Amino acid sequence: MLPIVSMTIFLPLVGALLVMAMHKLPAKSVHAIGIAISGLTLIGTILMWMRGIEATGFSQVEEIDWMPTIGAAYRVGVDGISMPLVLLSSLLFFLTFIFSSKVKDRPHAFVILMLLLETAALGTFTALDAILFYVFFEVSLVSMYFMIAGWGHEDRQRAALMFFIYTLLGSLPLLLAILGLYLGSDPNTFDMRQWIENPPLSGIAAMLALIAMLFTFAVKTPVFPLHTWLPAAHVQAPAAGSVILAGVMLKFGTYGLVRFSLQMTPDAFREAGQVVLAFGVVAAIYGAFAALAQRDLKRMIAYTSVNHMGYVVIGVAIAALTLDPTLRAIALDGSVLQMVSHGLVTGALFFLVGMLQDRTKTRDMDQFGGLLNVTPILGWSFILAAFASLGLPGLAHFPAEFQIFLATLRVEPWAIIAILGIVITAGLYLQAISKVFLGATNEKWIGMKDLNFREVVTLAPLLLLIIAVGIAPFWILEMIHNTTAALQF
Amino acid sequence: MSVLLTVLLAPLLTAVLILVVRRATGWLALFGLLISTSAAALLLIGAFNGQSVEIILPGLPDMPLRIIATPLTSLLSVMVAIVSFFVVLYGTGYMSSDRQQPRFFATMLLFVAAMQTLVLAGDWILLLAAWEIIGLSSYLLIGFWYDKPKVPAAANRAFLVTRSADIGLYIAVFILIASTQNSALAATSGLGGPIANITGILLLIAAIGKSAQTPMHDWLQRAMAGPTPVSALLHSATLVAAGAILLIRTAPILPAETMLAIGIVGGITAIVTGMIALAEKDLKRMLAASTSSQYGLMLLAVGAGVPLAALLHLLAHAVMKSSLFLGAGVFQHSRKATLFSTLKGVGRDHPKIFIGFTLAAFALAGIPPLSGFFSKDTIIAASLVSSNASLLVPFVLGGTALTGAYMARAIRILWSGERQTKTLVGITTMGLGMGVLVVLAVVLGFTFPQIAELLGEHLPENPLAMVLGLVAAFSGLGLGWFIPSKRLLGPILPWAQNGFVLAGGFDVWIVRPAFFLARQSEHFEKILYKTILAIGQAGLNLGRAARFGDERGIDEMIAALVQGTIRMGGRARNLQSGLIHKEMAIAIVGTMLIFVSLFVFILTT
Amino acid sequence: MSIELVLALTTGAALFGVGIYGALSQTNLVMIMMGVELILAGAMVNLVAFWRFLHPETAAGQMFVLIVMTVMAIEMAVGFGVAIARFRSRGSVEMEEAVELKG
Q1: So what's the pLDDT on residue B189?
Q2: Which of A82, B47, B221, B298 can bridge B288 by disulfide, Cβ–Cβ 3.0-4.6 Å?
Q3: How many Cα neighbours within 13 Å face the side chain of B441?
């Protein structure tokens, strides 16, 4: 059996080493290598998908002993929760490489960093060993720091530094929790599968471990009030960086929430569920209101990320609070699907704003006007993505949010007030659309070019997937539901 | 099965085709709609024969999507199909000089597909999805001429108001699915107790939004910024009908208290928006207010316990109101405006259109033997026999009278003025589309008994209702024709012209607080950000303090140690005077000390 | 202890004392050397006295005195050699001025 999982994870790293070795290549070839490698990685993840995933436990597990005395091994595998995220990551990276093929400033370094980041992302989602998970989790920070600091916009140094230190500090409690779980497990091991099957801690220890993990994942997701690094980082990051940050790296937090907090300390999570739920509700509503107040397009979309991730947190909290396996499955289905949808939709939105900023050098909504006449393809793509983001049925977010809210009403009815978020999001997106694309055309932008081939190729798969997931979510939900329905705690 | 799917897929696929091909888009649209209409008709015929078709599609886990063709749904489907066909026919003439025809017809077809899905939906999720997509189409169509000044705002308003009201539908759907463990519409019967009341109120809220009832009626008037075919199709016959359709379909499960609430909302709307219509200075806005008013009457009928009456009025209103709008569209093209002051006498320019307009107006007012008479009659009869008759009957009669009044006023203004000779491009197709609908408006009433039979119910009949109805209708017409609205409404005229906005309306109660909260959040964000930066500064200061401690504290200590040692050495150096006799003195003193101590040592041991 | 011995030792001590006083208090190298002579002389007197009055039969005392006298002579020769060298380089033999080895 070919170790396809490991090959797929490390293929980008190999590509990075290749580019590092051939540092005299011209920019075009470097980008071509990047696109080719990420394309092969995408094919690899599709192969992983087609090989199939069993309902219980993890599939396609590949294991090599690493530090046997402490029970740490190189262990990777997938299940219905991580597979969609793996697919999402490889797709987004592939499209980002295509989009970034115009980067002329130090292309080698850029491509190397992105490939490294891709390995880190795929590794995080497939790691089945806690130390391995932590390694991949932290490596991603390095890449993203350099991308923001090296290729970002006006205030990039400060934003990059704040992002790096904030999330690094935020990750330290996770390390403590991992050690706690290690010490609590009966033959001391770092094997995540063991921790899931037999949660090692109980009582106060479990609660402390949970709080530590929640802190880390709250910084990463991000959840109010630990979210302030996100708008700063997004605004200053280059478009490619924003897409990966929002589309992939935020999912580390929510994935960890499900994999670690929910599956490894379920009883403690049930006790703390109301608090987490409250944070999720506040994040959802606060994020929407904060987005409404923004004039900078990227900041606005960054805050809608806070809002959408708030829904995910609500879903996970509901899954923790309920004892009914059907409701738990519904809530988790919704949360995981929301992660995927958010990646697709917000990825598309950041690409679009990036394309707009490339042409106009500004992100301020008030500077635009009537762009639908000037750049119709960009305009209509934005309108489609915006309506997807506000949860219109037939587009990606609706099935996910529907399931989350359905479960919420059954389990903790008070939290349904988070549904106000969909109206506020509608308001803010319509405001943005009418300021930027509708109305009289601003003379400054009359000769602006519409999307070129590269940009259309970047956007088209995302938009098609947004519609596909919205109309027929079952092709993703099937794999998610098989796993969530079989969860036992 | 495939017939059912054709009804939905024909418009959708034609829309895609139009966007790809971009030529002869109007004819393509008509072709698609023709197929859809034929399929719908086949379904209706099947329903007459007692057949019921259902399709199940995969949806969410354990919640599949269902499409069903029952007598009720097939009837509504045919109504949607026919009105859409003729309005789009009209549209080929109306939009003939517009350059954005592909987008127009494609969006119209998207709307039709979504509306058909709504009326044929067999489960809540599909209904909810279709409900939202018609909202999307409405946004796209109202905002069709997006570079005109007030248009985006009108589209936003419409979408946001209906989306807010849709939360009611969302929560109602969740409650229904949760309590019945099933998402099918048919499974929701048998709900009881306070849950049913809450659900009912939530559904009512959704209907208030979508059907532009008071207090959410002003989005419809603003929506008139869109092209007239849009107003004719969406905002008279179909989209706004969705609210009423929802209540008609769920009427069996609603308890009495909710019914009363529905009736009261409908009644109040009928009166309030009727008065707005009477005071309106713009023809299309008047028709919009009138639409709200008529739907108020339909809600009242549901509240009275006879959803059949509401359904009949819905069908009649669809053809009547769309004809009125189509006529208004011709007038708009002719004089390039919709204000009454500009349209004085336009009836004389296009007499045939004007005759059609008047027929539809009389039908709406309830003059026999036009269809509106029959449907209004049914509603009045229903309200008379309902348990809350004392409350509902005055509303109905008031609404009927107001209908007559504002329609007569409109006819009067449109007729009384100077004739201006105008030729219009596309008048033939426009006239054709409108004409068929007018004919339907005239004759539809005669099919009502068969419709009632199809649905397994009978029409409530009451001679008192007929008398009251005729009195109200004719008095209304008379008042409207002879007395100008200023005199009729008197002191409330300015308030009516303003749309009966209460204390600033939505802008003060909802929009401003929302933006206030948004600004507060942004403010809080800045505070949070500063806090984080302050924590960072604190960290830096800690580092500086550590460096300070190192430099001043530890380094200084070591330096002091060094200095001390050097000083001590300096003092010790003083002994090294280099003078020989001093050295000798030291030697001798030292030797003495050694000897003395030796002697002492020897002597003591 | 016979009275003659005490007398001789006292003489020796007196010479020793004067010699120390002279070596320490004088600043001129020649005077310091004179003091050193006296110290050695005092030591020799003590030596002879102990030999004559306690062990007259051994020859060790006499030999010791001869050796000391030789050492005195050599020491005087070296010392005055240093004094002359100093006088030739500095022009004086005042010890107060010889501070080149100050630490």
Answers
A1: 67
A2: B221
A3: 31
**Helix %, strand %, coil % for chain C, to 5?**
80, 0, 15
- Strand (E) or helix (H) holding A75: strand A72-78
The SS3 of residue C94 is: strand
DSSP at B50? T
Residues in a beta bridge with B55: B67
Radius of gyration over every alpha carbon of chain C, rounded to an integer in angstroms: 17
Question: CB-based contacts of A9: which residues, under 8 Å, 6+ apart?
Answer: A76, A119, A122, A123, A126
Pick the residue of B525, B528, B529, B531 with the most A CBs within 10 A to test the interface with A by mutation: B525
For B599, counting Cβ atoms within 10 Å of its Cβ (0-12 exposed, 13-18 middle, 19+ buried), the class is exposed
Cα–Cα distance for residue pair A439/B143, rounded to 1 Å: 10
A286 inside 8 A of chain B by CB: yes
pLDDT in the model for residue B416: 84
Q: For the segment A223-249, what is each residue's pLDDT rounded down to a tens digit?
A: 988 998 999 999 999 999 999 999 999
Which residue's structure tokens are 């030796």?
A: B598
Cα torsion angle, A377, A378, A379, A383, sign: positive
Contacts of A65 (CB under 8 A, 6+ apart): A73, A74
Give residues with Cβ within 8 angstroms of A197, minimum separation 6: none
What is the value of ipTM here, to two decimals?
0.90
Residue A478 to residue A475: CA distance in whole angstroms: 6
**Whether domain C3-97 has CATH 1.10.287.3510:** yes
Count other C-beta atoms under 10 Å from residue A21's C-beta: 9
Shortest alpha-carbon distance between residue B321 and chain A (Å): 29
Q: Which phi and psi angles does A53 have, rounded to 5°? A: -130, 130
Neighbours of chain A (3+ CB pairs under 8 A): B
Cα separation of A230 and A234, whole Å? 6
Q: Which helix (H) or strand (E) holds B59?
A: strand B53-60
Q: Which two tokens stand for residue B202?
A: 């939530």
Q: Is A10 exposed, middle or buried (0-12, 13-18, 19+ CB in 10 A)?
A: middle
- Nearest CA-CA distance, residue A177 and chain B, Å: 24
Q: Considering only the beta carbons, identify the residue of B573, B576, B584 that sits closest to C23.
A: B584
Q: Are A462 and A391 in contact (CB under 8 A)?
A: no
CA B127/CA B115 separation, integer angstroms: 10
| Span between the terminal Cα atoms of chain C, in Å | 49
Chain A residue with Cα closest to B144: A438
* C92 at interface of B, judged by CB pairs closer than 8 A: no
| 3-state DSSP assignment of residue A66 | strand
pLDDT at B193 exceeding the cut of 80: no
Tell me what pLDDT residue B345 has.
83
Alpha helices, H only, A245-324: 250-256, 263-264, 266-292, 297-321
Hey, is B368 helix, strand or coil? coil
CA–CA separation, B418 vs B276, rounded Å?
Answer: 27
Q: Are C46 and C12 contacting, i.e. CB atoms less than 8 angstroms apart? A: yes
Q: Please give the span between the terminal C-alpha atoms of chain A, in angstroms, as a whole number.
A: 32
3-state secondary structure of B184: strand
The neighbouring-strand residues paired with B68 are: B54
Instruction: Indicate the burial class of B455 (C-beta count within 10 angstroms; 0-12, 13-18, 19 or more).
Output: middle
Angle at A88 between CA A83 and CA A93, to 5 degrees: 130
Contact between residue A420 and residue A287 where contact means Cβ atoms under 8 Å apart: no
- 8 A C-beta contact, residue B299 and residue B247: yes
Give residue-wise pLDDT tens across range A382-419. 999 999 999 999 999 999 999 999 999 989 989 999 99
- Residue A200's identity, in one-letter code, is P
Q: For residue B234, what are its two tokens?
A: 């969406």
Strand partners, B123: B184
Q: What is the CA radius of gyration of chain A?
A: 21
